[in-house]
Design a protein that fits this description.
By secondary structure, this protein is an alpha/beta fold. The chain has 11 helices and 12 strands. An 8-stranded parallel β-barrel has the order 1-2-3-5-8-9-10-12, surrounded by 8 helices. The protein has a two-stranded antiparallel sheet with strand order 6-7.
Length: 349
Amino acid sequence: MEIGISTFVETTPDVRTGEAISHAQRIREVVEEIVLADQVGLDIFGVGEHHREDYAASSPAVILAAAASQTKNIRLTSAVTVLSSADPIRVFQDFATLDGISNGRAEIMAGRGSFIESFPLFGYDLRDYEELFDEKLDLLLKLQTSEKITWSGKHRPAIENLGVYPRPVQKPLPIWIGSGGNQESVVRAGLLGLPLVLAIIGGSPLHFAPLVELYKKAAEHAGHDSSKLKVASHSHGFIADDTETAADKFFPPTQYAMNKLGKERGWGSYNRSSFDAARSFEGALYVGDADTVAEKIIHLRKNVGIERFMLHVPVGTMPHKDVMRAIELLGTKVAPKVKEEVARWKSVQ
């Protein structure tokens, strides 16, 4: 069982002051958060790619590289790379470079992305949304296994026996598929034999169990050993020294961020009752003291089969010291309890 953090490097206005942190400051804070996550023994840190004012990470590989030389053990991944609007060769080169700096700790989490700002920015047509991802994933997977590439497609110039460098330390460089719970994306990951990351950010996490089974059946149908394929989750949450403090600190910025996105996407209003329901034991928010969050992660592991859990913190803008404390608690209190219980549970199966 692996435990870690994911972030979108958000720069929404602070709900207490109304002031927005600068992109530069938030990026520097995230590097400090990655370093702390490594120091407290967390397994993975993910940075998501966005191209809008309220998110500062348009280039996750650069942020991760800044932390790579200051860390020793933690794995470093995108969360996600919006592959549909990216050049797979450049993506591979960036993460192969990160893999070299970190001496074999880089990963790519590829996804279609739930935000669409990158499409007009880089000159892509949203009508090609699905086709772009399928084609670019095909190229990225060829880069994973071959130094020299011959490839042709519809949306990128053909390549004829050209080398792509640098080569990564890891052979192969890990590529995960990120999914919001769409059956097609889950089946695609299974058929390709790629590890899967589920964004479990609403409803009951247990409702994702059938998707995990579907993923494994697709993998087995394609001849892959499903027992060797990992399933991860990315879920919103926050940890403090007591549960009520955690809830009271996490709700205001989460409400701001969710309502801002809600206006763009036509969602209903996000209020405290919605928040409190989601942080119940069966809900998708992992908010509370260390014991509360650990028990929910154990519940997820036992009932859905998640083998890597990534706590997405913060949602919106929170004081850096509070985020650092949450990371500290996740590494020193939550992760050891989860891993001990999962090891005990598996030993008696």
